[in-house]
């Protein structure tokens, strides 16, 4: 059975570092035997179909291929359409009433629980707030991610220890649902 996935690459094409042209990423995914390959934006999203593998093995395969081809490591998460749709549908914030730049989802490589975030004093960051989902964190940042003090606190190594995490704004979250559902 063919499944449609999104690959989320962390930290590429940011500030001129770790350049990975999307045309090259598409070609690499095709060389790995995947079909229906498309990329979204320049910041590391690709959708593809595969008849084999699971999210973890597909992510590991792509990460190895990127490092071999481009000479630098990249953290990769792969998620299928059903998961991406479920994350979007489970958003605890009123997404339709917010500007897309105010709402973000951080996808994690493994489940997370409240205990992991205990060191973060949520009240110190109001009106910003976050809530947890299935291998995801929803962040409401009214002034955007770039000005978010809470996002900075959530990105600290002691909070994310042992995880791969990558964040997308709400426009990208919903676009990936559309692209993987096509």
Task: Name the descriptors.
single chain, 182 residues, Alpha-Beta Plaits, 2 domains, 4-stranded antiparallel β-sheet
Largest sheet, order of strands side by side? 2-3-1-4
What is the 3D shape?
globular
SSE pattern, N- to C-terminal: EHEEHEHEEEHHEH
How many domains is the backbone divided into? 2
SS-based structural class? alpha+beta
Q: What integer value in Å does the Rg equal?
A: 16 Å
Number of helices: 6
Q: CATH H level of the largest domain: which superfamily?
A: SP0830-like domains
Looking at the structure, the CATH topology of the largest domain is Alpha-Beta Plaits
User: Portion of residues in helices?
Assistant: 25-40%
| Unreliable spans | none
CATH architecture descriptor of the largest domain: 2-Layer Sandwich
Please give the alpha-carbon distance between the first and last residues: 16 Å
CATH class categorisation of the largest domain: Alpha Beta
Number of DSSP E strands: 8
Give the biggest beta sheet: 4 strands, antiparallel
Q: Give the overall pLDDT as a whole number.
A: 91
Work out the strand percent. 15-25%
What does this structure look like?
- By secondary structure, the chain is α+β, with helices and mostly antiparallel strands.
- The chain folds into two domains: about 5-85, 2-Layer Sandwich (Alpha-Beta Plaits); about 90-170, Alpha-Beta Plaits.
- The protein contains six helices and eight strands; from the N terminus they run βαββαβαβββααβα.
- The chain has a four-stranded antiparallel beta sheet, with helices on both faces.
- Helix 3 packs across helix 6.
- The mean pLDDT is about 90.
